[in-house]
Amino acid sequence: MSLRICILETDVLRPELVDQYQGYGRMFEHLFTHQPIAAEFRVYNVMNGEYPDDDEVFDAYLVTGSKADSFGDDPWIARLKTFLLDRYKRGDKLLGVCFGHQLLALLLGGRSERAHQGWGVGTHRYVMAAKAPWMSPQVEELTLLISHQDQVTQLPENATVIASSDFCPYAAYHIGDQVLCFQGHPEFIHDYSRALLELRQQHLGPEVYSKGVASLDQQHQGTTVAEWMMRFVAHKPQGSAA
């Protein structure tokens, strides 16, 4: 039986990238086809006011990345926060990536803000800080493609750090068996990261840009994170109903 995942898309791609990549929802759908757990997806662009009907049932809700700030006061962000808090209170499983990672931390008692470290781009390596039954296959270090200038600077009290680096101390966390979030982009591929770097070259400056491009020679473990996400959704904690 397939897991049912609701993808809450929180951005629209730059016009230059739409034809090839379509949107973050489609990129996640493609990513999840490369991991072994069967799943089906429905994508709703919440920037455009799209949400599932109240009677639709999903095994988890995934919040994508976005150019927007998680701490912004845009009306669509306020509506999304209300929706997610309601789902959290109902006990639904929540997944977050980049913007979603920051928004869920903020929503559940942590802090997200513009990072003094500046832009993180290209391929980034993290030290694993925790293990859990759903983190299979296991890795000693985690490498992901990144593109962010905001970070989680304080975790919710009940959160556990999974992956960390000096540049990004709270790069991944989980809250029990209900919330799992990553700052990096498992759905990115090298070509997409390279295209973003080209489009932002002037804004990033020559040093950040050149280091970012050079780092794209490294592999990333997006499919590993995709499998962790699906195992997290499928995982039944001990003592829970099957």
TrEMBL record:
Pfam families: GATase. It comes from Pseudomonas putida. The keyword Lipid metabolism does not apply. The keyword Thylakoid does not apply. CDD domains: GATase1_1 (cd01741). Keywords: Glutamine amidotransferase. GO terms for cellular component: cytosol. Residues 94-191 form the Glutamine amidotransferase domain. PROSITE patterns: GATASE_TYPE_1. The lineage of its organism: Bacteria, Pseudomonadati, Pseudomonadota, Gammaproteobacteria, Pseudomonadales. InterPro entries: ChyE-like, Class_I_gatase-like, GATASE. This is GMP synthase-like glutamine amidotransferase.
